[in-house]
Amino acid sequence: MDALELMKNRYSCRKFADEPVSDDDLNAVLEAGRVAPSAINRQPWRFLVVQREDGLAKVDQASRCRYGAPVVILVCFADEESAKNEAVVPDYGWVDCSLAIMQMVLEAESRGLGTCIVGAYDPQIARELFAIPEGITPVQFVMLGHPAIGPSPRHEERRPLSDILVRESF
Ligand SMILES: Cc1cc2nc3c(=O)[nH]c(=O)nc-3n(C[C@H](O)[C@H](O)[C@H](O)COP(=O)(O)O)c2cc1C
Predict the structure, then answer these.
(1) What is the whole-number distance in angstroms between the Cα of residue 117 and the centre of ligand 1?
(2) Total domains, the chain
(3) For the chain, what is the radius of gyration of the CA atoms?
(4) Atom 12 (ligand 1) nearest CA
(5) Mean pLDDT within 152-169
(6) What phi and psi, each to the nearest 5 degrees, are found at residue 86?
(7) What pLDDT, on a 0 to 100 scale, did the predictor assign at position 1?
(8) Position 89 in a domain
(9) Which of 117, 144, 154, 158 has the most ligand 1 atoms within 8 A of CB, as the residue to mutate?
(10) What is the DSSP letter of 32?
């Protein structure tokens, strides 16, 4: 599958099958995150992987958007690392995490897995339940599993390029 086709096939999966994700698949998804680009190669990420029942129950306390996913990755960054040399290059922790997330999501898609990036969660609850220390900023959850449902109608709603494209100058 070519890259554009892969990107167009990806959608936010909001119902996952009761089927485990293999270690091979999970490791490949994490590897895709690990090799993501980051500002001045700071690699400030922390990938918190939650698979045990008690952990998944904690995710459900922090967010209503797990959708039955058997694997949850909370993508975080270490503040000190993302701020290193901040005088020269700004803190891009959120950007670095976003790029790692997107690589993970596309690797998952290429393996026939479904994902949903989830920002609707209570960071304070997540911090308490997962013992996230000061100095680590949680960014987004990635819900991961075998899809049990296709895309929502909204998946097709994309603005035409003419709406968002600016050539040469505003
Ligand atoms: C930063 C970010 C946060 C999101 N948060 C949620 C969320 O909390 N719950 C959810 O169901 N989907 C969430 N989504 C998925 C978007 O709603 C979805 O990408 C968008 O509607 C387009 O649909 P598609 O991904 O199926 O193409 C999020 C996506 C992004 C990029």
Answers:
(1) 6
(2) 1
(3) 17
(4) 118
(5) 96
(6) -65, -25
(7) 74
(8) yes
(9) 117
(10) H
